[in-house]
Each structure stands twice: as structure tokens, then as C-alpha cells.
Amino acid sequence: MTRWIAFAIALTVASVAYASPAAEKLFQDGKAFMNQGKLAEACDSFRRSNELEPRVGTLLNLANCEEKRGNFAVAWSTFIEARALAKRQNDERAGEAEKRAAALAPKLSYLTIKVVARPKDLAVKRNNTDVASAELDHEVPVDPGSYVIEATAPGHEGFKQSVDIALGAHVIVEVPALVAIPGAEPPPPEQPAAPVVTAMTRRFAVGAAIGVSSDKDALFGLRGVIALTTVGPGRIRLVPSVFYARSNDPMDVYHHFDIVAIGMSAEYAWDVIPQFFIAGGIGLGVDVVKDSYNDPLGLNGWAQLRVSPTYRLGPVDIGLHLQAVGVTTNRVVGLAEVGVDYFF
User: Fold this and answer.
1) Any idea what the Cα angle at residue 72 is, between residues 163 and 173, rounded to 5°?
2) 2-105: CATH number
3) What pLDDT is recorded for position 344?
4) Given this model, what pLDDT does residue 284 score?
5) Cα–Cα dist 28/14, whole Å
6) 56-68 and 21-35 helices cross at what angle (nearest 10)?
7) Concatenated DSSP letters for 130-157?
8) Residues 334, 213: contact at Cβ < 8 Å?
9) Which residues contact 245 (CB under 8 A, 6 or more apart)?
10) Is the pLDDT of residue 321 over 70?
11) Are 236 and 225 in contact (CB under 8 A)?
């Protein structure tokens, strides 16, 4: 008798100090429904109150309500949940929750769903409720009553069996190997998740470019890309390059210049969308010039500003490289190139 008095006190104490007004109102509704003998409404109110604000007292009331309804498995699991919460909160009601769970243990019924074979995408249901894969082949507490066990898989005939489980019974339902349907298409194989290619996994590239200068000289050459580090939403890269162009003297058809431009640029590449980015930066270099009228080679240093809207297609970048180049001869030359870089 003393134990039942202590439990009644525990249920009463549960009603104090709710932080959520809605949880408090639902809890009080549950107590009122219990006094009126409306067990279904009481259990629903306690359950919703606990969803809003989990409390030991609410769980104890909910478990007590479910036990009165004859739902022993639900009551037992709720007492276990109340015990765990009470222990985390150093609540003395943990002992009472454990005693109530132990008292219910002899009344529990158990169901084991054994699966002989598990074809791809096997789905098992108990009374139209999905059974977690972890529960299969293991004994699980259930309430007494009638159950319908179903198993389905694409391309296979389904399985269905009804079973009645008495109070305290241990029942095993075996799901046989599902029979494949002749001619049915097997489920498509699982496609591995596409790897997420981040900018810094594409570190090294070689490429080629062709373009034209503001002097109407054609140029072509080779370039590389070396990704150094990620900074903010983009990355810093080095772009070494070697280009060749022939410039003709407009005043003398026999006079021309062969130019090899060797340079290095540092740029910041920022992804606008996964397939498109814009790179911009500065560079330094030197032109090695062969004048057709003079034997000695000439050298002209230069500096540049560059911007490159670029489209990414798998391991290939296709970019439009726009550059303004200032040379030591006090000239500014504009360049426009279309380049293709292949990343390893």
C-alpha cells in the first residue's frame, strides 16, 4: 500500500513548474480525463504534453494510463523511458519507474519476425506500420491482440500472415524467402553517390589557348593551373603561361617580330555556381622578341591585369581570358583568349 501511495504522490508532483503553458494545459486535461474515466483521451493528452516538454511526471502518468488501458508493452516502454529521464535528472522517481516496469514485465507479450532471406528493398510491416530492420529476427515486446505481418520487395510475390498474440505469449512469425515473379524486371542497381568535386580536389591542370591582341596579332600557347589554397568562398591559383605571336610592321611588309611571352599570374577564382566561376588577378612576365631586321633578341618586361569567366565541364575548364598588358615600351596591349584546361 505504501508503494501505491508513493506513486500517487509522484503523479501529483508532476504537475508543477511546467515551462510550456501548452504542455501544462495538456497535462491538466489528461488528469481531468483520467478522473472521468476517459482513458483514450487522457493518454493522448499526456503524450502530447510530453512531446512539447518531456518530464518524468508526464511520462509516469502516461505509462499509468496506458497500463489501465491494457497496453502493457506501451506502458512498460514508457516506464523505462521515465526511468532513463529521471536518472539523467537525478530525480528520485527513477526507482518508482523501475519498480512499475518490473511489475509489468510478466504481463508482456513478445513477437519475433524472422526473415529467411532479405531481397533488395525488402519492406516488412506490422499492422500497416513499418518494422525497423533492427527489430527483425529479435524478440520485441508487443501488446496482446491480432497482428497482420506483411513483407514485400520489388519483383517478388508478397507475404502476408495474421497472428493472434495472447497475454504473456512468445510468438514467432517466419517470413519465408519471397518468390521472384517470372519476367519481372529486377530493381535497378544502386548508383553510388556522385563524388562531390570541390575546387581544391582539382589542383593541377595543363591547357592551351588561342586568341588575338588589340594589335590584331594572332597568338597561341600553353598554360598551366596550380591551385594553392582555399580562401573564403574561392581559391588562390598560379597560372604559368608561354605564348607565341607574330607581329607585322604595318609600314613594311618584309618586317615582322616573333614574340614569345613567358609569364606567371596569381589569381583568385570564385565559384558563382558549381559549373561556373570567375577568376581575376595580376601577372608579371617578359617578352622575348626576335626582330627580323636585327640579330640580337630583345626583352620587354610586362605586367597585366586579367579576368576569366570560366565554365567547368567535368575535368575540363573552358574560359575566356581577357587581359590588359602594360609593357616597358609604354604601351598597353589588350588580349582576348579562349582557353581549355584539363585537370588531373
Assistant:
1) 25
2) 1.25.40.10
3) 76
4) 93
5) 10
6) 30
7) EPPGGGTTSEEEE-SEEEEEEEE-TTB-
8) yes
9) 213, 217, 218, 219, 220, 259, 261
10) yes
11) no
Q: Half-sphere exposure of 197 toward its Cβ, with a 13 Å CA cutoff?
A: 14
User: Tell me, what's the pLDDT at 216?
Assistant: 83
Q: In what order do the strands lie in the sheet with 109-115?
A: 139-142, 109-115, 170-175
pLDDT of the residue at 112:
94
pLDDT band of residue 15 (cuts 50, 70, 90) is very low
We find that the CATH architecture of domain 199-343 is Beta Barrel (2.40)
pLDDT at 46: 94
Q: Are 288 and 262 in contact (CB under 8 A)?
A: yes
Percent of the chain topping pLDDT 90: 49
Question: Partners of 343 in the beta sheet?
Answer: 205
Can you tell me whether residue 325 is helix, strand or coil?
strand
Which set of grid coordinates corresponds to residue 341? 584546361
Nearest in space to 113 (alpha carbons), one of 102, 124, 105: 124
Cell numbers 588575338 correspond to 212
Contact yes or no for 84/55 (Cβ under 8 A): no
Residues of the chain with CATH 1.25.40.10: 2-105
Q: Is 187 helix (H, G, I), strand (E, B) or coil?
A: coil
| Residue range 109-175, CATH number | 2.60.40
- The CATH 2.40.160.20 portion of the chain extends over 199-343
Q: Which residues pair with 305 in a beta bridge?
A: 282, 324
Q: Which tens digits make up the pLDDT trace of 152-163?
A: 999 899 999 999
Long-range contacts of 269-273, Cβ-Cβ distance < 8 Å, separation of 24 or more: 269/199, 269/234, 269/235, 269/236, 269/237, 269/310, 270/233, 270/234, 271/199, 271/233, 271/234
Residues constituting the chain:
344
Q: Greatest CA separation found in the chain? A: 120
